[in-house]
Write a structure and sequence with these properties.
There is one protein chain. 63% of the residues lie in helices and 7% in strands. The protein is of the alpha/beta class. A hairpin with a 2-residue loop joins strand 1 and strand 2. The radius of gyration is 25 Å and the shape is globular. The termini are far apart.
């Protein structure tokens, strides 16, 4: 049994580490994570609790943050938790596919590879999202415990109680109680497979009689949360369904759902592949794709005994209806993607890529549905003798896409470091409570031309001054008032794009030298210049 499990686990771990391993070298942060970054540098947990944690009832986040503070490098500890959570969840998924769904090794390994490597939930590295990854792992472990319906007696009771506890911990991320219904469908299907001699109605009633508590679990959790743990303060209505909003009509709600689902499906399935076609003209991306393809091909050849057949075997039988497993996988992928989107579309927050960029966090539930859809599409649409090549090409494209985007994210971080090098001279001459308005004329260094958030600008000033008396925003942000404002223009002396040699030098400086040396090096390499163009005092 040990030898049977060994090779697939090694293959998955190796390819996953090749793809996402650079995340562990990422020292930067973005969006809301700047609040945590400042806590790691200059802790003020009372402020964090009162301003962010308590109003949103994010006590589970607070516990995880305090846990990471026990380590010498909380930032690295947080990213290790994220990295390990997805890897272990992939191995748990492999176990579910092979033991409970009886998939052959090749099909199970390929599906889990897509689940691990497709970069749909790309912002998983963000510090403030660490519990998202942990909740995903807890959910899959709970699924694995609950699906073992062959146990009896005390051992079975312990597994079911443990699964319920883990489900509840995953439900602390609001979308998982909705996604839980996909697990219920799978659980009922496996139960029906063990009672094929019974009529469908009899099987359903038998399942309800034995597992009614599973149906009640998410409903009871949501009811308790709505009654006793509703957000308060400025967080009231944060996740209010769009149909209940002022001025909402049936037509506007339907329109929002259609546009949300279309944008969400593009983001969750097609974006990495469509964007990769555009990136092919970039030589760094092309070189990365060649390297990734060589590595994937080598590993596939190394494990060729496991990957001799890439198709899922056997068919699904639903009474008199018989459907091929590959078609069922494709349909299941689409269904899971729709279910993954529902809790976000319902509150008007489908995942999106551009602009703020942090909206990609709403693709948390997409990896499994995307993996099923893409794997099913390859098996259904591509000839059998060409499927292995298609899998190698798609996985290589995903790995190159991840690498290239980590390069862009790092350069984004180094741009932030260059700004931090230039800001002290400007702050020194500004009165307290000044609001700085940034006009960023070089957005090309921002990952995906993203818009910098207020949390980041505020984080700059808090990190540099140790106070929260200075604030910042982009020039297009109109929702602020201040007695004193200063307009800052961000420009660069160099006109060409940053090179990999620049990145290597800055990465070396970041890892082996001081923070001040990194900021100086970033300012010199990127030639960032800040200039105050306008000041106003009421």
């Amino acid at each position: 049994m040990q030898r049977f499990l060994e090779k697939p686990a090694i293959l998955l771990t190796t390819l996953y580490t090749i793809a996402w391993g650079p995340m562990l070298l990422l020292r930067g942060d973005y969006w809301d994570g700047w609040r945590l970054l400042n806590q790691f540098v200059r802790p003020d947990f009372n402020w964090l609790y009162l301003s962010d944690i308590d109003p949103q009832r994010l006590y589970h986040y607070y516990a995880l943050i305090r846990f990471t503070m026990l380590f010498p490098d909380p930032l690295l500890a947080t990213r290790i938790i994220i990295f390990a959570s997805w890897l272990i969840s992939g191995l748990v998924l492999l176990h579910i596919l092979r033991r409970y769904l009886k998939w052959n090794d090749a099909a199970a390994i390929l599906l889990v590879l897509y689940y691990l490597i497709i970069p749909t939930f790309f912002v998983r590295f963000e510090l403030f999202l660490a519990y998202y990854s942990l909740a995903n792992l807890l959910f899959l472990i709970a699924c694995s415990l609950s699906l073992d319906i062959s146990r009896r007696g005390f051992q079975r009771a312990v597994r079911e109680i443990g699964a319920c506890i883990l489900f509840v911990l995953s439900f602390l991320v609001n979308s998982f109680p909705v996604f839980f219904f996909s697990f219920l469908a799978l659980h009922m299907y496996l139960f029906a497979q063990q009672h094929v001699h019974k009529f469908a109605r009899t099987t359903v009633f038998a399942w309800l009689k034995r597992y009614f508590y599973l149906l009640i679990l998410p409903v009871a959790f949501l009811a308790i949360k709505l009654m006793y743990f509703k957000p308060f303060g400025d967080r009231i209505g944060y996740n209010e369904p769009i149909i209940f909003r002022e001025g909402a009509t049936l037509l506007s709600t339907i329109s929002s759902f259609i546009s949300g689902y279309w944008g969400g499906m593009y983001t969750g399935i097609l974006w990495p592949f469509a964007h990769s076609i555009v990136l092919l003209e970039r030589k760094y991306f092309a070189v990365g794709l060649i390297i990734a393809a060589v590595l994937v091909f080598f590993l596939f050849r190394r494990y060729r005994a496991l990957l001799h057949d890439t198709e899922a075997d056997s068919d699904f039988n639903f009474g008199r209806i018989c459907i091929s497993k590959s078609a069922a996988i494709l349909i299941a992928g689409v269904a899971l993607c729709f279910l993954a989107l529902f809790p976000y579309v319902a509150v008007g927050k489908p995942p999106h890529i551009y602009g703020y960029g942090f909206g990609l966090r709403h693709s948390l539930l997409f990896p499994l549905g995307s993996a099923l859809f893409i794997y099913g599409a390859v098996v259904v649409l591509i000839r059998k003798n060409m499927q292995k090549g298609a899998h190698i090409a798609l996985l290589s494209l995903c790995i190159a896409f991840i690498w290239y985007n980590f390069f862009l994210l790092d350069m984004d971080w180094y741009k932030q470091q260059a700004i931090l090098h230039e800001l002290p001279a400007i702050i020194r001459d500004a009165p307290r409570d000044t609001f700085f308005v940034f006009d960023d004329e070089m957005k090309g260094l921002n990952w995906n031309n993203r818009t910098i958030s207020r949390q980041e600008y505020d984080g700059y000033f808090e990190l540099l001054t140790g106070t929260r008396e200075y604030h910042g925003a982009g020039k297009d942000d109109r929702g602020f008032t201040a007695t004193s404002t200063a307009a800052i223009t961000v420009t660069a002396g160099r006109k060409d794009d940053p090179r990999v040699t620049d990145w290597l030098y800055l990465k070396y400086t970041e890892l082996f030298r001081s923070t001040d040396q990194l900021r100086l090096a970033a300012a010199e390499k990127l030639q960032i210049v800040l200039s105050v163009t306008n000041t106003k005092v009421r």
